[in-house]
Structure formats: C-alpha cells, structure tokens
Design goal:
With about 300 residues, this protein is mainly beta. It is built from no helices and 29 strands. The protein is about 0% helix and about 50% strand. One of its GO terms (molecular function) is lyase activity.
C-alpha cells in the first residue's frame, strides 16, 4: 500500500479543472475538465489531447459504457454525454430541466445509471439515448455518487440526506441512514469483498455497507481532510482522494488507512482510478494528473513534470 513514487503530469492550464478520471477501453486515461468544458485523454507516456464541449457544460463524472464509449455527466448543461475513443461526441438532453446530473455508472442491464442532484431522482439512459427517471422518497437529498453493486442493484450516496441508497432494476429504492450525523457522503465504489465503500466528506471517514444494509465507518487520521472520490486498487485495497488534505489515501478491507501527501500544495485532488499501467491516477484541479505507483518500500516523493 505504500506509494513508491508520486509524479504529477500537467495536462491542462490551471483554470481548466481536471475533475474525474477513468480508464477507457483503449487503455488510455479519460478525464473531465469541469471549468473549461473539455474531455481529456492521456495514454501514459504520451502527450495529452482533449475534445472541446460547450465551455459552460460542466462535465463531471466519466465512465466506460457497455458499448465501448465513454459516458459522462454535464452538470451545468443538464445533459448526458457520450464520446467514442475516436473523439465523436453525442449529447442527450434530460427530461427534467435543471436536474444537475453528477454521478454515472454502467449497470448490469446494459444501460448507464446516473444521479440528478437537484431533482432528487436517479436516471437511466440506454446506449441509444432513451432516458427513464426514478423519483427518490425524500426531497433535498442531493444524490451524488453511484456504482453497480455485486447484488445486481445500483448503489448511490445521498449527500444531504446523510444516507446510502439502492435502486433495483425495477426502480424500487431502499435508503440506509448513516450512523454519523451530517457525514455528507460523496464517492462510492464496489469493493472486492462484495460490499460498497464510500467517502464521508464532512466527517473525514470511509464507510462500508453490505448488501443487507450493515454499515461500518472508519475514521481517517485527519478528520478535516475532506475525502471526495474512491476507487478499487485492484488488490483488494481501496484508494481515495482527500480534497482538503491535499492527499491520496488507501484503506484495507479491514479498515486500516494510510495517507500520502501530494507533491504540489493545494492541488485539489478529486477523481481517482486504477490506470491501464497498474498505477493509481488522480485528477488534480490545478491542471494535472497524479500517478501513484505502489511498492513494498517507500521511495522519495516525485516531481512535477511538464
């Protein structure tokens, strides 16, 4: 779990705001630039490229879809976007105006499922653009992250309702309140243990929920670190970003956490993913991607590269 090195690679200007990141089917890293309305692509070792959207569209979360394209939410434009590995973009308007789509994930049914933060709905979009929306039981819940669970459902965080939700393929919703008040969960991912793991940005904790709704919370060493996104590291461990602490962290399935400082102060880490090269990659809002390699023994921290 110890980083052998952390290197930062500049991929955009400091105002573009790299936000979320994922590994595409073409063995490239794809990332959103929320402030400039662009989708970026980086093959490790090559120069970055990008595709311009509406500059005010606010692309946020990006994932690989079941059709071999990348799918992303446009938070400000209230659309779902699709980009092929060749760079062809298609955008789909949503039925509910001003719904603020944020999280998105591929479901077990061959569709994409997403959260509508300001409309208190979970959305589903087929690969040909057909949209269905499912209302949640509470208003003002601010559904945020979403992921597919091993139980065949989609699991999501309710940031303002302080809960974790599940929606079945039939649209049935179950809500599980969190033990810690005002924890404000955001990112969520399926762990290799069959449970769902999530970050509590306001409480400085990592949470774990089983398919039957049993919840554990693990306080982090710095409760003010504001954990934001979380991903599976491929070896059973989970990795997460600390937006307020300027760190990345790892946690074992037993709940043992380690934190690791990023080289550049105030780099604003957000999304994190396991890259095609076996390293962890984090999106830094200052215009860079951080590559975190893992070795048994720590080596010196890395440098910032142009």
């Amino acid at each position: 779990m110890t980083p052998g090195s952390i290197h930062e690679y500049v991929v955009a200007d400091t105002a573009s705001g790299p936000y979320a990141i994922t590994t595409g089917p073409d063995d490239a890293l794809w990332f959103t630039m929320v402030h400039s309305g662009r989708i970026g692509r980086l093959v490790p070792g090559d120069e970055p490229t990008s595709h311009q959207l509406d500059p005010a569209s606010g692309p946020t979360i990006i994932v690989t879809g079941p059709d071999g394209a990348l799918w992303f939410t446009e938070y400000q434009a209230h659309r779902i976007g699709r980009i092929t590995t060749e760079g062809e973009v298609t955008e789909f308007s949503l039925p509910t105006p001003g719904c603020g789509p944020f999280g998105i994930a591929a479901g077990p049914d061959g569709a994409l499922w997403f959260t509508e933060t300001t409309a208190d709905r979970i959305g589903r979009i087929t690969t040909d653009g057909q949209v269905t929306e499912f209302p949640l039981p509470d208003t003002g819940a601010f559904p945020s992250g979403i992921t597919a669970g091993a139980d065949g459902g989609m699991w999501f965080t309710l940031n303002q309702a302080n809960a974790i939700g599940r929606i079945g393929m039939d649209g049935a919703v179950t809500v599980h309140p969190l033990p810690t008040a005002a924890a404000a969960p955001v990112g969520i991912v399926a762990g290799q243990d069959g449970a769902l793991w999530f970050v509590e940005i306001a409480a400085g904790q990592i949470g774990r929920i089983t398919p039957n709704g049993s919840i554990l919370e693990f306080p982090l060493p710095d409760r003010a670190g504001r954990p934001h996104a979380i991903t599976s590291g491929g070896n059973g461990n989970l990795w997460f970003t600390e937006w307020g602490g300027n760190r990345v962290g790892s946690i074992t399935l037993e709940g043992a956490a380690e934190l690791h400082d990023l080289p550049t102060p105030r780099s604003e880490p957000h999304g994190i993913t396991l890259g095609p090269d076996g390293a962890l990659w984090a999106a830094l809002e200052i215009g860079a991607l951080a590559r975190i390699t893992v070795t048994p023994d720590a080596l010196p921290q890395g440098e910032r590269r142009p």
